[in-house]
Design brief:
Rossmann fold, 8-stranded mixed beta sheet, 6-stranded parallel beta sheet, 14 strands, about 400 residues, alpha/beta, about 45% helix, 16 helices
Amino acid sequence: MKIAIIGQKGIPAVSGGVEKHVEDLSVRLTKAGHEVLVYTRPNYTDKALKEYKGARLISLPSIPTKNLDAISHTFLASLDVIFRRKVDIIHFHSIGPSSLIWLVKLLKPRTPIIATFHTQCYFHKKWGSFAKWYLKFGEFVMHRLADEVIAISETLKQYSKEKYGREVIAIPNGVTLPELARAEEITKLWGLKKDSYFLSVSRLVKHKGIHYLIEAYKNLDTDKKLVIAGDGSFTNGYVRELKKIADEVNKSEKNSGKEIIFTGALSGKILAEIFSNAFLFVQPSESEGLSLALLEAMSYGRPALVSDIKENLEAIGDTGATFKNQDAINLRNKLEYAESHPEILMKNGEAARKRVQKKYDWDNLWKEVEGVYRIELGKAGRQGSFIRILKYLISH
């Protein structure tokens, strides 16, 4: 099969769950003998890079602002796949880019379109009122016009059923089970040693809840450091606010070994070391699809403390601990308990790694996506877009 993938910033993934998802999927599809085209943005992937582990990269420009980056790039990618490419499957990722599925259905009606529902982006606090409305419109278009919708969690699958009356396929985010890494580079860079720090890996955007974590840590009696790995995403003001509070904590004379460290976005060996040696992984998000960073932490055998939103509960099962969403005091209390019960954390970490191996291993999950492609490609008598859209309008 020849497969075009649209909606991501690019690969290889530097940051972002969608980008890591697309990287892992496209590499495996390529290894299986499929031809994969991945559209990339020059502000994320070097436009000189034409291929990554067998996947062909197509760099197209975008308008690199918070509101126009994704949609401008998706528009050009949609035109490119309509007029310049002969493909068997078109796969859109995320609800914002999926707002343009109608354009592809209109002008390339016989090509199956798959859409992956990653998260309800309109809950993210960085978006204004119009952007939130448009994201909801994209979610609507995805569910009405995509030939098949893949939800990355059972929670999103249930939402699709309740909101749109559509049965979608749940195929979760996945990870590759890694080997643990000793603390070497992270010791040289930040003085970090095994079990000497709490860890959160996240984009620095408000709905990820990092401010709750910093507030909880600020009032915690501990000698462990707090490491926050990740960068902002058009959220410079929020990042400045976080670092200002962190500076106050770091400069306080009351602290005995406490320190908040912002590492920026990490990848490769350093990221593996950061995960492998954390005492506890903390996920304070207000909303998620199915957190890839959380699954990665679990794959390294790290115990997790997560906000009690449905998506986090689905990920950890009975292998981790929770705190009340948006409650910094409750989070502080849970951090305190975790630090005084390391034997529980050890058991949770071992169970988490086994859970990931059983439920969230990309070496199994990619085959489910491939199966969706084959089913849609095998359907005969596919309706043209005009007929499909007219039928929908008439029935509603």
